[in-house]
Amino acid sequence: MTALALWARRYGALIRNAWLIDLQYRAAIVLWVLWGVVEPAIALGIWWAIAGAGPVGGYSRADFARYFFALTLVNQLTLAWDSWYLDRWIREGELNFRLARPLHPMHEAIADNLAYKGRTGGTILVLWLLVAALWPTVRLAFDAERWALVGLAVALAAAMRFLISFTTGLLAFWTTRATAIMELHAGVSLFLAGRVAPLALLPPVVAGAAAFLWFPYMLAFPVDLLTGAVQSGGALARGFAGQIVWLLLWLLACRVAWRRGIRRYGAVGG
Amino acid sequence: MHFWGMADAAAILADRLSKVFRVKVRAPGLRGAVQALVRPRYRAVRAVDDVSFRVAPGEIVAFLGPNGAGKTTTLKMLTGLLFPTSGRAAVAGYMPWTGGSAFKRRIALVLGNRQQLVWDLPAEETFRLNRVIYDVPEADYRARLDELVELLDLGGVVDKPVRQLSLGERMKCELAAALLHQPSILFLDEPTLGLDVTAQEAIRHFLRAYRDRHGATILLTSHYMQDVTALASRVLIISHGRLLYDGALDALVARVARTKRLELVLGDGVTREALAAFGSVLDFQFPNAVLEVPREAAAATSARMLAALAVVDLSITDPPIEEVIQRVFALGAAPPAAGEAP
Fold it and tell me: Which of A4, A91, A195, A250 has the fewest CB atoms within 10 Å distance of its CB?
């Protein structure tokens, strides 16, 4: 069997197991979907009310609707919970048997992440298509080239957010507060990644500072690409360049954190 | 990475292994908490200190020691989970922490207090996942699973959700999950922890059978002396990170136990006081009594007592192994060689 076939079987088995576990908790699936919808729905409600008197920063009510629907979908497709899993694996000794297997624990995390996206992201996609069928305002023009670029941007953002979450989780090798750091990151990303408002509405100083960080590239850029807010070739190139540079930097950070962390691992439990 | 070549016949080799952990120290109370926050202080704890031993292929060796003695830390170094602070190790010819997948396919690690079975799914789902992870061909998987189900008496268990299994059934399934890739070296940390006597015996029986069938090498830690006496041909005794003894259990008893026990069934009229003239009376519930006498005087004392008192039955035994081990810990150093006064 080729190496590729072996890896396909391994990922298939890991994703299958993740889904089997999910199916034990059907209520949890509904809660996760609700969780993914509520935050952008509230943000949209607020901006919808504000934009009643006229466009805000060039965004009309319809623009806000398209933005937050696109955000809901992209957020689900790029979300990563891995720091919470990893933190538990490390602090409670669940990493032990994973380290004793001939499979880097990161593969299980990636497979869980894909399984999660297949489940919740898939549900959100169906919801989005239903809403778009009933409410023409949120429909997006179909352009194969743009959708292909969106697909690429979402994949890069998903990889980056996975690495951010995994690397932050690895901090559990040093601190018991790794998930608190991830909470802080999530708080900052509310503003700098465009979760509560399009980045175009941020004060110019904040938006300028955000452009030097990874936040816009993990969410706002693929969302703007999907809604059509990114039009110029320059903006497109800057967006992808930012994604690739930050992806590589987080990959490097992840490798360094893993190598150093594993050397100081206390292997809890005995 | 292969280590020291294959010329070395030992299945497990530990050479001056040490592990030092850095532990944060904090004075009690609010002031201590603030101090620890502002200026944390650390203390080096030597969990494993210069431990060397070797285990031959097919051998079953037990690691004994009180909680925190360094048993599990040593096991985790030998399986590559922990990097040693100093020293070397070779397991199945590999250096554990750089051995990679090839090394991990040769070993199994079962931690009694940490399970790999997925709680919400039947154990068989974990078995299937491991089959793919270890790349075991389907036919081999079926044959091995059948064998493990038979040896561990797991019929009707593997398809029930793990959360519905008893502790004993779960441990048996843990063992099956860890052995489907047919490892040649097993590291078992407290494999019978918390199990009832029947389940403990079933696990022991299985481990012996597995070793006999597959020639596997087993290094296990346990708090239960029955595990040790029933399974291990050799014991490693560790305390405060230092290896105190490496050898056969019988030899340890001969070296460390200063006394023998005379278990007696007494005839009419023999009193506790009369018995006390021959040694210290550990138990007296007429007609049964247990007398402790100096080891070298056991035969002579028995002869004198038989001549002087009405004794129906007499047998000479060693003190319980737990007491012997306790004595080794109390000595806190290598037990004296045979013949030396302890």
Answer: A4
Domain-embedded: residue B41:
no
Same domain assignment for residues B138 and B239? yes
Q: Tell me, what's the ipTM?
A: 0.86
Q: What is the domain range of residue B305?
A: 259-317
Q: Name the residue type at position B232.
A: A
Return the CATH number at B289. Answer: 3.30.70
Q: What is the pLDDT of residue B7?
A: 42
pLDDT bracket for residue B29 (50, 70, 90): confident
> Is B338 domain-assigned?
no
Let me know if residue B283 belongs to a domain. yes
> Cβ contact (<8 Å) for B100 and A17?
no
- Our CA dihedral for A69, A74, A76, A81, rounded to 10 degrees, sits at -140
**Structure tokens that stand for A175 in this block:** 């601190």
Please state the pTM of the whole predicted model: 0.85
Every domain of chain A and the residues it spans: 13-269
Can you name the residues that pair with B290 across neighbouring β-strands? B263, B283
- Give the torsion sign (CA, B316, B321, B323, B326): positive
With an 8 Å Cβ cutoff, the interface of chain B facing chain A consists of 21, 71-73, 75-76, 79-83, 100-102, 104-105, 107-109, 111, 113-116, 118, 120-121, 125, 128-130, 132-135, 189-190
